[in-house]
Design a protein that fits this description.
The structure holds two protein chains of two kinds. By secondary structure, chain A is α/β, with parallel strands linked by helices. Chain A folds into two domains: 2-8 and 261-385, Aspartate Aminotransferase, domain 1 (Alpha-Beta Complex); 14-259, Type I PLP-dependent aspartate aminotransferase-like (Major domain) (Aspartate Aminotransferase, domain 2). Chain A is 43% helix and 13% strand. In chain A, the strands form three sheets. Chain A has a seven-stranded mixed sheet, sandwiched between helices. Chain A has a three-stranded antiparallel sheet with strand order 9-10-12. The model of chain A has no long low-confidence stretch (mean pLDDT 95). By secondary structure, chain B is α/β, with parallel strands linked by helices. Helices cover 25% and strands 29% of the residues of chain B. Chain B contains eight helices and 17 strands. In chain B, strand 10 and strand 11 (265-269) form a beta hairpin. In chain B, helix 1 (11-22) runs parallel beside helix 2 and helix 1 (11-22) packs across helix 7 (170-179). The longest helix of chain B is centred in the first third of the chain and has 20 residues, at 97-116. Chain B is globular and about 65 Å long. At the A-B interface, helix 10 and helix 13 of A face strand 2, helix 2, strand 3 and helix 4 of B. Chain A: Belongs to the class-V pyridoxal-phosphate-dependent aminotransferase family. NifS/IscS subfamily.
């Protein structure tokens, strides 16, 4: 079995799993006043400090959440609501068409249900945002802008954005900037304070932690209206009993991922470059999508002309190779990737794409297995897509 | 064999897939997404392509331990089945969309894709028998028999099809599903037309074809006896919903005898005028043996779950002609005539054609 879908989720690190199990054995609600509660609270607060230190934030800026989707929703909706509460004219949300659905759908929800305006920033053929485009947008609409949200690195095609430059432009206009850094943390250097962003999403299961826990780093001066009301456990912005075991394991994973990032990324990129080179050899007409150099070290994203991505996935899956077609709707129907369409790809190129993503358990043997299976699969997928004579 | 099991989310296709696994095949489950917007199609137990059905199919595949995917066939389904359905009604004929779906989607688009991807056959939960002799036969469960809607399959299509349920009754299938721990064991049967959400065919057609008022004419007197909002909404043999202004002179009920799209006229008359002894049909297909060169005595069925009557059938070029030994009421153009050879091991489908008159 060759698991080439680490961008979907990656195996937990041993130390994170051990920390999870050890903490889960202990009873205690971090909000309780007795000894068990204090012990749980201590674990949570130590974890908060570790996450903050690893990502260049203050501990008070770490808001633990139930994962990336919640963090994105809290940032997009919460900050927009807070800005609008202070100034009713701040109704514009600025975003890009290549965002993950957790951001995209939250933005569209605000547009549909709360009368928000949306400024969509264009991307180029490699999926890159350009600071000048943001400047133009803000020069025209800055006085109505509630929030800018743009991902640090794209989950599908792997393109890395110049987040520091984009955040600086937003800062000139005094508009808070949120970034979804889910794919970035552990693969590229991420420093919350140095980046100048107001809010940053990170999640556990993409970097060796558990599913269902993540954080929103939220600048101390940035207000957000809560999505979840209740005990107000996290800075009164997020309620819900703290998941001490998940948070501890998350912190262990974040710390490990950030500490080893440089060496890890170099090794990963070398393996990925090998994969790209060999895929090109095996299927010469393949198109590599995304930025050729400024991309996540674990990401390889291709279009296979004449094939349908979902047919290729089925054929590779049958040979024990796990990869992804990108976005899927709730029924599991393969949709042409909105990211590729935003990059100017036509429907065919968007439908013919597959993502291979490497992670900490990936080996040359995984790439070997892919290369052994790929030419035959491409051949078959092409035949399956060929137009047939009508009966 | 590597086989692709089409899984609708219902009990039949789940058990069919289970039997294929048990028979030792390498089975992959596929659910067909047929609705462009799943919410607009029937929801829940009665449908064939809703999110709930997709989840039920996925869950059944989980229980069987087979790979499972969703194939998007919405555009093909819309063009080949839904648009065809509307066009047929507009032309004054009465289509059978399930039959068309088998002919164009399940055993064409899906089968072709499956074969291209390296599968040897498609498995479905249809109630019909298809044995090693390659002959398509009625199910042992005559009430659930679906050989009629499969009779449009060509030799090539049949050769790549597996129907594991033909020797079982529906009750046995449900029982087996329960024993296998399949949650769909007691899911109600699907019926009616999956793409008409509320079951209102007339409303569905009116939305697409618009209202085109016209006359309802009595066949015997030639008198206009009522008005209709669109001739397409009627089907031969229909009695209800005629809303006639005047009772028939003899006081007996009247039925739709014919629909004439050209003049937008619906012609009505007494029940006996519906009786037909000769049926003409086009596009004949003969899979139950060599194509006959003269008239042959067999049985014919003229609509799904319709009566079966003896007939002499002649196939000549692109037409099929049947002399019914007993008159039949309510024969509608657009439906299929299916010829069967009676057989104690299950009546054999000989051939089929599309009724023209």
């Amino acid at each position: 079995m060759a698991y080439l879908d680490h961008a979907a989720t990656t195996p937990m690190l041993d130390e994170a799993l051990e920390a999870y199990v050890a903490t889960a054995r202990e009873v205690g609600n971090a909000s309780s006043l007795h000894a068990s509660g204090r012990r749980a609270r201590r674990r949570v607060e130590e974890s908060r400090e570790r996450v903050a230190a690893a990502l260049g934030a203050r501990p008070s800026e770490v808001i633990f959440t139930g994962g990336g989707t919640e963090s994105d929703n809290l940032a997009v909706k919460g900050i927009s609501w807070a800005r609008r509460a202070v100034d009713a004219g701040r109704i514009r949300v600025i975003s890009s068409a290549v965002e993950h659905h957790a951001v995209l759908d939250a933005v569209e929800w605000l547009e549909r249900h709360e009368g928000a305006e949306v400024g969509w920033l264009p991307v180029d053929g490699a999926g890159r945002l350009h600071p000048e485009a943001l400047r133009t947008e803000l020069a025209e609409h800055g006085d109505r802008a509630a929030l800018v949200t743009a991902m640090w690195a794209n989950n599908e095609v792997g393109t890395i954005q110049r987040i520091g430059e984009l955040a600086a432009v937003a800062a000139e206009y005094g508009v808070p900037f949120h970034t979804d850094a889910i794919q970035a943390v552990g693969q590229v250097p991420v420093d919350f304070a140095a980046s100048g962003v107001a809010a940053l999403t990170v999640t556990g299961h993409k970097l060796g932690g558990p599913v269902g826990v993540g954080a929103l780093l939220l600048g101390r001066e940035v207000a957000a209206v809560p999505l979840l009301h209740g005990g107000g456990q996290e800075r009164d912005v997020r309620s819900g009993t703290l998941d001490a075991a998940g948070i501890v394991a998350f912190a262990v994973a974040v710390e490990a991922a950030v500490k080893g990032q440089q060496e890890y990324a170099a090794g990963l990129a070398a393996l990925r470059d090998d994969l790209v080179r060999r895929v090109r050899q095996a299927v010469p007409e393949v198109v590599l999508n995304g930025d050729p150099t400024d991309r996540l070290p674990g990401n390889a994203h291709f279009s296979f002309p004449g094939c349908e991505g979902d047919a290729l996935l089925l054929l590779l899956d049958a040979q024990g190779i796990a990869c992804s077609t990108g976005s899927a709707c709730s029924a599991g129907v393969a949709q042409p990737s909105h990211v590729l369409l935003a990059m100017g790809a036509d429907d065919d190129r968007a439908r013919s794409s597959l993502r291979f993503s490497l992670g900490h358990t990936s080996t040359t043997a995984d790439v070997d297995a892919l290369i052994a299976a790929l030419p035959g699969a491409v051949d078959r997928a092409r035949r399956a897509a060929a137009p047939r004579t009508p009966r | 064999m590597r086989v692709l099991a089409a899984m609708s989310g219902g009990v039949d296709s789940a058990v069919a897939a289970a039997r294929a696994v048990q028979a030792g095949h390498d089975v992959t489950g596929v659910h067909l997404a047929l609705a462009r917007n799943p919410q607009t199609y029937r929801t829940g137990a009665r449908g064939c392509c809703t999110l709930e059905d997709s989840r039920d199919a996925r869950r059944a595949a989980d229980v069987l331990g087979i790979p499972f995917y969703v194939w998007d066939m919405a555009d093909r389904f819309h063009a080949d089945v839904v648009d065809d359905f509307v066009a047929e009604y507009a032309a004054g004929r009465t289509p059978n969309p399930c039959l068309r779906c088998n002919e164009k989607i399940k055993f064409a688009a899906v089968l072709d894709r499956a074969v291209a991807l390296g599968f040897d056959a498609v498995v479905t939960g249809h109630h019909a028998r298809l044995g090693p002799d390659g002959l398509l036969r009625r199910s042992v469960d005559e009430a659930k028999d679906q050989s009629y809607v499969l009779a449009v399959l060509t030799r090539e299509q049949l050769d790549r099809s597996i129907f594991p349920l033909g020797d079982s009754t529906k009750a046995q299938v449900r029982q087996e599903a329960a024993e296998r721990g399949l949650a769909v064991a007691d899911k109600p049967d699907s019926h009616d037309i999956c793409f008409i959400a509320d079951g209102d065919t007339r409303g569905f057609l009116a939305q697409r074809l618009g209202e085109t008022p016209g006359d309802v004419v009595d066949a015997t007197t030639g008198a206009v006896v009522g008005q209709h909002a669109g001739a397409y909404a009627y089907t031969v043999g229909q009695r209800r919903g005629l809303h006639l202004d005047r009772p028939a002179p003899d006081g007996r009920p009247r039925y739709v005898l014919s629909i004439t799209p050209k003049t937008n006229t619906v012609t009505v008359g007494p029940a006996e005028a519906l009786e037909v002894s000769t049926v003409r049909a086009t596009r004949p297909l003969w899979t139950g043996g060599p194509r006959p060169d003269g008239p042959i005595e067999c049985e014919v069925q003229l609509r799904a779950h319709g009566v079966v009557v003896p007939a002499a059938v002649t196939v000549d070029g692109d037409t099929l002609h049947a002399e019914l030994r007993r008159p039949v009421r309510g024969v509608a153009a657009g439906q299929a005539i299916v010829a069967y050879r009676p057989d104690p091991a299950g009546d054999v489908v000989l051939g089929s054609a599309t009724i023209t008159g």
